[in-house]
């Protein structure tokens, strides 16, 4: 579905991502873990077309996308749910959701029904200004907005960041439900254990490189990996 082949991402002289390769299988959850500054966000931004790669290739649905502008990548069904929980404050919840569907000309009612089923609170607050939502509700809105593009594949950048533990669990359940509708997910998380519970496959990044890949159960069995990269 999504294949990253030996990509390098640089910010001037700073090499943030070095020769990274990953495979994300259809209708699965692949988790990308790693400490702050490891290069996770830079990798997701490169896939979404918001960072240019200085070498390597990115293939989505059999097509090279690493030279395409970001909106063309969205049109092909690959969306990024970004780290910054930015919503349009002076627009209502409903208007924010419609922005998520901006690349589409078809009927969006099916996606709207699905996001309101996932997040009943957003339905109750459809006419409320997004700026007045709580942190958790904003995060739900950001996720819901990315679903409105009718993506085949979603890149989540630390969706549980800054949320209380019960909300972290709720977000993980939501991501699992999104997968169950057949979508493909690449999930970046600091909450390694919560993410590994729902993941089908895992990668760990350190200093811009992939240092481990494998199935979550094998990763958790490996004491040195757990101690070294997941903080015991
Ligand atoms: N816009 C930028 N300009 C320069 N350096 C950056 C920029 N964004 C990220 N970096 C650097 O790239 C490295 C990887 O950052 P990032 O991809 O945000 O890591 P992570 O998401 O894993 O925390 C860090 O050393 C960071 O300081
Ligand atoms: Mg990051």
Automatic annotation (TrEMBL):
Domain of life: Bacteria
Family: Belongs to the ABC transporter superfamily.
InterPro entries in alphabetical order: AAA+_ATPase, ABC_transporter-like_ATP-bd, ABC_transporter-like_CS, BCAA_Transport_ATP-bd_LivF, P-loop_NTPase
Native source organism of the sequence: Pseudothermotoga thermarum DSM 5069
ABC transporter domain ranges (all copies): 2-232
Biological processes, Gene Ontology terms: L-amino acid transport
Gene3D superfamilies named among the record's database cross-references: P-loop containing nucleotide triphosphate hydrolases
Name of the protein this chain belongs to: ABC transporter related protein
Species lineage: Bacteria, Thermotogati, Thermotogota, Thermotogae, Thermotogales
